[in-house]
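Inputs:
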Amino acid sequence: MGTKVSKGLTKVSKVSSVSVLGMEARPVEVEVHIDGGLEQFHIVGLPSAAVRESRQRVRSAILSSCEDWPKTKVTVNLAPGDLRKEGSLLDLPLAVGILAAGGILTRERASGYLFMGELALDGRLRPVRGAIAAAMTARELGKGLVLPRDNSPEAQLVPGVHVVGVETLTEAMGFANGELDPDVGRPKSLPDLLDLEKVAYPDMSDVRGQAMARRALEVAAVGGHNLLMVGPPGSGKTMLAQRFPGILPPMGAEEALEVTRVWSVAGLLAPGAALLTSRPFRAPHHHASPASVIGGGHPLPGPGEISLAHRGVLFMDELPLFSRAVLEALRQPLEEGRVIIARTGATVRFPAEFALIAAANPCPCGKAGDEREVCSCPLGRLDQYRSRLSGPLLDRIDIQVEVARLTEDELLAVSPGESSAEIRARVIAGRKRIKERREAEPEWTEGLEALDQPTRALLRSAFRELPASARAFHRTLAVARSIADLEGVERVEEAHVAEALQLRRAVWR
Amino acid sequence: MSRDDLRNTGEDAAARFLERRGLEILARNWRLKMGEIDIIGKEGPILVFVEVKTRRTADFADPSAAVDFRKQRKLRRLAEAYIAIERPEFDRCRFDVVSVVHDGLSRLRYIPDAFA
């Protein structure tokens, strides 16, 4: 009598991981408690559906790795308890925690690392989203990072973090036990990676004629202006837009890292890929939902097309056909270069510094812009079509040009147009001048007082005739400044303003 | 060996084991219409209800895996009935599970306080 009930050995372990929220990876502690009683497996601490499902994956992966699954009660707590835990990346820390609590792992080495990764049922590791963000969090915490090998090239972009890429749970355990040091490989330096093969964009020399549109693209490339092309179907709007990234200067290391981080969070990097070295070109269809263009999703918002186009080009063909919600939601990112998405679960922000290249038919039937044809649209429909683009949105598009159909002479011309490389050289030179001026005078703005008398007279008469906002006025000056920079002229002159006005004709109203 | 023989073999082995551990057995196969409790004992002031699960092999799962939520609920109800009918003086109880794998020899796994 009086025998005490043996509770069995109560065992606890703690493994560090993260949860990806927006562009950030928040630290998460995975606490595992192995207790007596019947076999049970509970996860508490605001796990999402994907995290709850990891119970099955983790159990199978541990058994497939020839380790014992505890035949008793396993309780997992994810701390902090008020942060929503999303995604399958907690599989690996969960498995490591269970093995540590079961005494199979010595925890000393594990405590210096963050763990992330999705487990396959056979114990192999699958790549996850947000490895760069996790590496940055690891650096802040002064820890290393153990993650699926497919993710290690991107994580290694963050300097000063010991990144360990593993292929299986067994390998991860071997590392944590100090029995195995996977060949982590030397991380490549950013400049080395930038020299890697780049996406070849189609070349501007393919485009015949369209002098005005070519010029518009060049000015837009120098000054980072948004551009709207209006013209009938088949006039070459899409062709021109696809060639725009090819005339932009190549990305620098910092830019490339920013872009790669967004793509990493979106889970769009190819397995084993490290750095995105080419400027992204995104062309969402006009039926795309606001969440897919702007960003969103359930339960935690992810980046949309505008953020995937960060530091690159967002091409919106048939701009007026996009939903009103999409078009109006573009205004904040166009202005601020970022987007804030508020949901019940969380409020997150994503970068969205992109060049907007938009295209539109002049009218629903598409014939209005053609001299040889007559538009057949009923007036009411035309008005309705035109009104789809709001004043405030058009106000933010600095350059608006018409792209006419080519004449038979232009079509039959054999001499190719200027190549992308030649244009890009001028764009790079222009951008260099802008950068030098900004560095010399950070507060510099093109004040009206700097303009000479004829230039001011031109501006006055132009803005007397067409009613336009103060923003339109200042944006016109900004375009004139870009033209001057493209030409290497110190001061904005009458000709620059005249061309800027040409490039912002009321092609839409 | 029939299913009943297997069950009795397992329950006998479990009862011997528990007695050696110091459990004073009060009843075995205490039965109501809704089901039965394999072993009832007492350990000091605590009434102990024991479910014994016997299998010929543990290849597919531990026998204790069969004590699922419904079985637990049934045992809880039976225990309440037992206390009310037979032993109203007890106010503390515990549920144990003994899982037996019998392939010629009986191998026992004892899970005290398996559920509440």
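The first strand of chain A starts at residue 11 and ends at 21. Flag for discussion at group meeting.
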